[in-house]
Write a structure and sequence with these properties.
The chain is of the alpha+beta class. The protein folds into two domains: 134 residues, Trna Endonuclease, Chain: A, domain 1 (3-Layer(aba) Sandwich); 188 residues, no CATH class. Strands 5, 6, 8, 9, 10, 11 and 16 form a seven-stranded antiparallel beta sheet that branches. It has a five-stranded mixed beta sheet with strand order 1-2-3-4-17, sandwiched between helices.
């Protein structure tokens, strides 16, 4: 399937008069297209121009056509997508933009094309956006805690991260443990757990492909002037900061008092955790979440409560899930991934066309 999609992408590039270079390096796109006089483009790993973009007159509401993107004169990575996953889509655009390449996705169906377009058009990289805030896609990473370990919650229900402007108390734990929450048993009660064939806890690395180029985990924050270059297609609630408005700002430490939306972790309609804003995801204290977990030297998973008191041991993450605790996924927050607009940096080609 991927080879067929690559062939479709390569043929379209050749018809546009571009030269293509293939790579077997998993850290790079499988094919990079460039103009005939720019043979070094496929070899370059460094972005040389941070101010321009491939399609200058592109709109945030829709992508450039493949023909427009291919005639831009920029290097273009051909990326095949069979099963659309937000982590994969966003990471590939981020990786290519970081190396001054546009991205042309090649998909097998119109449905896949529509899904990619929905992820990458305004508001970029979120499930939904309302006046109350955004709903984020879950990412592959977990929430690392300041004291070590990772955040967990006592529910098997699907989790979601949502912004909210509803005034509803202070940050921290919100919901009490319901009747269906796992029973708390002491480590000393002799409860035995069986070792499971389970992957090791993610050591804060993205699990998409094993390539560091394809990571979408949080990058170190850039300087304030770089943050202000992110346009509203990444976060429609962001505007240049003003001293007397209530617009959410990128950096609460710089603009004290600006009314930014809460960030809430929900299980269905129930709010489990409330954080100050999306920036509070950076290594929050353990007390912000009902439970934490880490792997002991004996390879077992130890679950602690919010105060650090031991709750139970399990043979692995699967065993922990079966007993009613689940790791908290880190949300994909667009402004934590991109330091500039992605409008004009990507397009989609459907193989059926």
């Amino acid at each position: 399937m991927n080879e067929r999609l690559l062939t479709v992408g390569i043929d379209r590039c050749h018809r546009a008069g571009l030269v293509t270079s293939r790579s077997s390096d998993a850290a790079k796109p499988p094919v990079i297209a460039h103009t005939a006089g720019d043979e070094t483009a496929a070899l370059s790993d460094e972005s040389s121009n941070h101010d321009e973009r491939p399609v200058i007159d592109a709109r945030a509401s829709e992508p450039p056509t493949p023909e427009t993107l291919l005639s831009s004169g920029w290097s273009i990575a051909i990326e095949t997508i069979s099963e659309v996953d937000p982590t994969v889509v966003l990471s590939r655009v981020w990786n290519n933009q970081s190396h001054n390449r546009a991205t042309l996705f090649v998909t097998p169906t119109q449905q896949a094309t529509a899904k990619i377009t929905n992820i990458l058009t305004a508001p970029v990289g979120v499930v939904d956006s309302t006046n109350d805030g955004r709903q984020f896609y879950p990412g592959p990473d977990r929430i690392p805690l300041a004291e070590g370990g990772y955040a967990a919650v006592p529910t098997s229900a699907p989790l979601s991260w949502n912004e909210s402007r509803t005034a509803s108390g202070q940050p921290g734990l919100v919901a009490t443990i319901s009747d269906d929450a796992p029973a708390i048993t002491s480590e000393e009660d002799g409860r035995k757990t069986t070792e499971q064939d389970d992957v090791e806890i993610d050591q804060r690395k993205t699990a998409e492909s094993g390539s560091t180029d394809e990571k979408t985990s949080r990058k170190p924050t850039t300087e304030q002037e770089d943050k202000e270059n992110i346009t509203t297609d990444v976060n429609p609630s962001m505007e240049p900061s003003r001293s007397n408005d209530t617009t959410p700002d990128m950096n609460s430490s710089v603009n004290i008092g600006i009314n930014r939306p809460w960030l809430e972790l929900r299980a269905g309609d129930e709010v489990l955790v409330r954080l100050n804003n999306v920036d509070a995801l950076a290594c929050p204290p353990r007390e912000r979440f009902p439970y934490a977990y880490h792997r002991d030297d004996d390879k077992q998973i130890r679950v602690l409560d919010f105060a650090g008191r031991p709750v139970e041991r399990y043979g692995g993450i699967t065993d922990m899930r079966h007993n009613g605790f689940q790791p908290v996924p880190a949300p994909l927050v667009p402004e934590h991934m991109f330091n500039k607009s992605i409008t004009g940096w990507w397009g989609v080609l459907t193989a059926q066309q």
